Amino acid sequence: MSTRGRLPLVLAAALVLVLVAVGLVVVRPGPVGRWLGENNSAPATAEPVEPAPVAVLAAADIGAPLPSAAGLQAVLDPLVGDAALGGRVNVAVADALTGELVFDRGGGTGTVPASVTKLLTAVTVLTARGPGHRIPTRAVAGAQPGEVVIVGGGDPTLATDTKGFYPGAASLADLAEQVRTALGGTAPTKIIVDSSLYPGPVYGPGWDDDIPTGGFGGAITALMLDGARKDPKAGRGWAERVPQPDLTAGRAFARLLGVPTEAVRKGTAPPAATGATQPSAGGTEPGAELGTVYSPPLIRLVDIMISESDNIVAEALARQVALARERPASFAGAAEAMTEVVSELALPASGLTLADGSGLSRKNLISPLLLTELLVLAAGPDRPELGGIFGGLPVGGWSGTLRDRYGATPGTTAGAGVVRAKTGTLTRVHAIAGVVTTAEGRLLTFAVLTDDVPPDGMEPARAALDRIAAALAACGCR
User: What is the rounded CA–CA span in Å between residue 355 and residue 364?
Assistant: First the structure.
């Protein structure tokens, strides 16, 4: 049993949508007054009252009985042995209140996790940076008169204007306005793009060949717009990405400042003179600050990463871990820093191998046991900042990557509105990890990872994973 797991379970309602202590039931969106518990009478001319909202997450109960190991084994063993899951299936189930491991089949074995990696990225970045940290994008005066340097800080959500892909993102239009004010009427003539914060390759080790062009990944650079999307109006998930996100952003910035796009090149910002935090007259002092815009807070970026399984945001957040731990903001530096934070949190690192922060890499290995203990830690009171990982977790049959799962497939109905989990998918690799409330009200953390599924077996494997989580939801198992 985890020593950390004996701590009382505390889940913040806004983040987890399950309040164990008070048995709160979370409902589908309805009128704001109903969300806030108001009970005002409707005026006679009001529209017809909406039906009562349908419960999405069942209430949990700290006094509910814990399923027995034998009971869980009897229920889960046949499901875990489903041939659709291939020859390598590793599972761990733990009590969210105590951390006690109640089912273990290869739980300590490192397994290719696919996008379930993002849970680890979320916990490490919230630990290293904190939920309120915002990523800056700066503009400074260049080394030569007329030069403006845009310095990428790693914000993947930056937009050209207020119509970008990510709601609430910082905009280049705002930064350009700050630059014009700082320059005092002096027109810039050249834009230098400084994306040197990210050294090393732009594509991750172990990525499939189609990922850079296939629309779920892209070149990872310190300056980009709209997650490197070619079209900010593109839908979620697959989207065509630009091959050089930093230069694309630099050219957009140039257009806003009236600079020809052919006058945009890569370079580095000159060091600011001692005490030169503000530009001199005309903004010509090399390195002088001309403007700064900031990303949404990291807690919001974590929510986006998990709910939408956004790979570009995930790689940006992994690099924030590297920067916080004074490592190079590269794939390798991020992996080292994330592993270091896992050790700091006293999570089980046996079998852990990281190559990226998104889970696109087949070189990643994470054990189900690490994932279940990570979720127990996030649900407990000692690290309240980690509770943010629950806010974006998809809900079975309702949201995110689980919107269309649980219900239609036989044996999965019990998981609808009860399973809250992150999924992962690569060819031959399928995973799910999250929290589930049993039929008697006990909250469990669980992780099921398989990386030896037949190449054409995605749908059967997903159904088999869903039946395992649904069985936990329906379980008394005592």
Answer: 6
Smallest Cα–Cα separation from 287: which of 151, 189, 135?
151
Q: How many helices (H) and strands (E) does the chain have?
A: 12, 12
DSSP state of 363: T
DSSP 288-322: -EEEEEEPPPHHHHHHHHHHHT-HHHHHHHHHHHH
Task: Please give the structure tokens belonging to residue 48.
Answer: 């017809």
Do residues 118 and 360 touch, judged by C-beta distance below 8 A?
no
Q: Which of 336, 330, 114 is nearest to 206 (CA)?
A: 114
Element (H, E) at 18: none
Rounded distance, CA 106 to CA 103, Å? 10
Q: How many residues does the chain have?
A: 478
174-178 long-range contacts (CB < 8 A, ≥24 apart) are 174/291, 174/293, 175/137, 175/139, 175/150, 175/253, 175/291, 175/292, 175/293, 176/253, 176/256, 176/257, 176/291, 177/291, 178/139, 178/290, 178/291, 178/292, 178/293
Find how far residue 153's CA is from the centre of its chain: 18
**Beta carbons of 96 and 376 less than 8 angstroms apart:** yes
* Residues whose CB is less than 8 angstroms from the CB of residue 385 and which lie 6 or more positions away in sequence, other chains included: 126, 127, 130, 131
C-alpha to C-alpha distance for 437 and 1, rounded to whole angstroms: 20
Q: What is the pLDDT of residues 224-283, one digit of tens each?
A: 999 999 999 887 778 999 999 999 999 999 999 999 999 999 999 999 876 545 544 455
Tokens of 92: 């761990």
- Contact call for residues 134 and 141 (beta carbons, < 8 A): no
Q: The tokens of 100 are what?
A: 């006690």
Q: State the average pLDDT over residues 72-92.
A: 96
Burial class (CB in 10 A: 0-12, 13-18, 19+), 63: exposed
Q: Give the chain's largest Cα–Cα span.
A: 77
Which residues have a Cβ under 8 Å from the Cβ of 143 and sit 6 or more positions away?
270, 286
pLDDT digits (tens, 9 = 90+) for 156-214: 999 999 999 999 999 999 999 999 999 998 999 999 999 999 998 999 999 998 888 77
DSSP state string for 322-357: HHHTT--SSHHHHHHHHHHHHHHTT---TT-B-S-S
Token pair for 477: 């198992």
Which two structure tokens, joined as six digits, stand for 391?
């806010």
Q: List active site positions.
A: 115, 118, 309
What per-residue string of b and e applies to 440-473 under the rule 16 or more CB within 10 Å gives b? bbbbbbbbbbbbebeeebbebbbbbbbbbbbbbb
Q: Nearest Cα to 425, choosing from 443, 442, 400, 450?
A: 450
Assess contact for 464 and 84: CB atoms under 8 A.
yes
One DSSP character per residue, 30-50 reads: --HHHHTT--PPPPTTSPPPP
